[in-house]
Amino acid sequence: MHNDLLTSPSGVPDGSLAGEHVRDLYRRGVRCVALDEPVSLRSATPRDLRALDFVRNATGQGLLVRWHLRAGRRAEPSLTAHHLTHLQPPVSLDGGRSAERLAEWRTRFYVGRCVWRRGPGFVQIRDRRDGVLQRFDLIRPEYVRAVALLEDQRADGVDPEVLDTLRAEHLVLDFGGRVWWAPYRIDRWPVPSMVL
Questions:
Q1: Contact (Cβ atoms closer than 8 angstroms) between residue 8 and residue 36
Q2: DSSP assignment of 48-72, as one string?
Q3: For residue 6, what pLDDT band results from cuts at 50, 70 and 90?
């Protein structure tokens, strides 16, 4: 089976269905995909967020993605150099200091940098984007429900106070007035959990 697949983010289903699409590609033997349009954070559209969902889910599955990020000249340098470094680095990145930011992203990236998993009645998130482990054990029902809604891109159903709390920890990011859930889901830790 051919391992390269050219896919369009506009053809990727919304929310958790994007995760199923990625798992299906992996089951079929695909190990490398390329998005045919750049992802733009300048004024993010639903297509751009679906593309980010695809990259997020592919990163969690271990599927290599070739993608391009358009952040714009005025994009905050720390946004792509920090809050998205848990995603596979893009092939190209525009904006100020792009070569430096992309090199830093490539250096900082590893699988498991910002992940979540579901247990019976809880969600656990492990985030190392700051260089130290931050672990969040979400046990309150409104938080567990919020993760499910955010994974499906249904932020309008999330309690605003919960959304603000997740935003403060950069687990939810805002692009062009749209809310995006940052951690990717894993079903098993790729290395001993003490490392993550």
A1: yes
A2: HHHHHHHHHHHHHHT-EEE-EEE--
A3: very low
Encoded amino acid at 124, one letter: Q
Rg (alpha carbons) of the chain, rounded to whole number: 16
Domain range list for the chain: 4-108, 114-185
Sheet holding 184-185, edge to edge: 134-138, 122-127, 114-119, 184-185
* Cβ proximity of 48 and 17 under 8 Å: no
Cβ neighbours of 110 (radius 10 Å): 12
What pairing do the DSSP bridges indicate for beta strands 114-119 and 184-185? parallel
More confident residue, 47 or 14: 47
Most confident of 41-55, 90-104, 110-124: 110-124
